[in-house]
Amino acid sequence: MDVECASKDMTNASPGPVVLWDSYGLQNPYSGIGYYGLQLYSALKQMGCTPQVIPSQAIDENATGIPTALKAHPLSFVTRFKPIALTLADLKFQEFFRKYGHIDRFVIHGLSNFNLPRDIGRRAHGKRVITVHDLIPDIYPQGVSRTLRSFLRRQMPKTLERADAIICVSQWTRDALEERYPSVSTRTVVIPNGFPEIKSHRISEAQEKPSILTVARYEAYKRLDLIPKIAQQLAHPVEWNIVTDDKGEKLILEGLSDDRLKRNLRFHKRISHEQLEKLFETSSLYLHPSLYEGFCLPAAQAIAHGLPVLYCRGSGIDEVVQSAGLGLGSHQSPADWAQSIEMISASRVEFQKRVEHRQRDASNWKDVATRTHQLYDKI
């Protein structure tokens, strides 16, 4: 086992702590949390700090490139039920410490809002870190299931109480967290997600006609039902690529009665990273109608590819986009969105300059890893 944050044999010969990650959320490299974990893991590893991943949930090393320090529990396939994930995390961390009981200085990091193990034994030098991406189930409870809402209302206070440090991916997330849990204010730090590698994106003749891209799974707060309403308001039909899931596609198609418009909407599901990259490269505008985002990694991807972003302002996405797009209010109409699409299309050169300005200020995943590593050492 290669433990580069401490030493190869798990002793504390090196000044850095052993870093242990709970695997919950890492099983899907295309989810927001999975992507966050994969990028942060890779950047930390390049720095010489390889987290040891403890599998409360089985993850596919071939898909993620992240090995686990132990064999996953046979029941890990049922860990979509979050209380089971926490129980399995307890069991796997206890197994890890039975195997490497001489580790005294370590950091346990949960990447998925709530997933800090509850019982790691009496270990005075162990510290816990949790990454909070957003509090949308609290802010918009009607947009999530009653089961999830009930679980998080019980679990979040316990998780936050156990945490020695809390990473928030945006100032908006931090503000929302501290408003609801004032006692955490001395333990929170904002470490925004990184942007992908910045790529040039010049206007070509093929892109003179607007080509819109939206990337969002179905969630009520994502407001995918606005897409057909906006499409029907456009003066001229445009090609609109939508990366979503089955429920998202069904919702959008149910809102369309015009077969002509249906032909202009192209749905993409379960696509590869390379296919997604191609969509960013061949689009001229990224549109994101979601009411809330803790950060919004697709918007960061769009900006990295040189695309202006049209979005709903009022959450963490504001901090991501800044000058690189246009934010609309949550109550603005589909006609307002359509008008904004046409305005951005008519001002392509101006918006390209704004995107390039934002690109120059964008942080990368090396920055995120450096700040996260510093936090590990500090606590």
Order of helices and strands: EHEHHEEHHEHEEHEHHEHEHEHEHHH
Question: What Rg, in angstroms, do the CA atoms define?
Answer: 22 Å
**Uncertain parts:** 1-9
Question: Shape from CA axes?
Answer: globular
Structure annotation, total helices: 15
| Average predicted local confidence, pLDDT | 89
Structural class: alpha/beta
How far from one another are the termini? 24 Å
Q: Strand share of the residues?
A: 5-15%
Fraction in helix: 40-55%
What is the strand arrangement across the widest sheet? 2-1-3-4-5-6
Q: Please provide the count of β strands.
A: 12
Fill in the keyword field for this structure.
6-stranded parallel β-sheet; 379 residues; globular; single chain; alpha/beta; disordered N terminus
How would you explain this protein's 3D organization?
This protein is an alpha/beta fold and 379 residues long. The protein has 15 helices and twelve strands. A six-stranded parallel sheet has the order 2-1-3-4-5-6, sandwiched between helices. A six-stranded parallel sheet has the order 9-8-7-10-11-12, with helices on both faces. Helix 7 (226-233) packs across helix 13.
Summary of the model, kept short:
This protein is an alpha/beta fold. Helices cover 41% and strands 14% of the residues.
What is the fold's blueprint, element by element?
Elements: E1 18-22, H1 32-46, E2 52-54, H2 61-64, H3 82-99, E3 106-110, E4 126-132, H4 136-139, H5 146-162, E5 165-168, H6 171-180, E6 188-190, E7 211-215, H7 226-233, E8 239-243, H8 246-254, H9 259-264, E9 265-268, H10 273-281, E10 285-288, H11 297-304, E11 309-312, H12 317-321, E12 325-328, H13 334-346, H14 348-361, H15 365-378
Parallel strand pairs: 1-2, 1-3, 3-4, 4-5, 5-6, 7-8, 7-10, 8-9, 10-11, 11-12
Helix pairs in contact: 1-15, 7-13
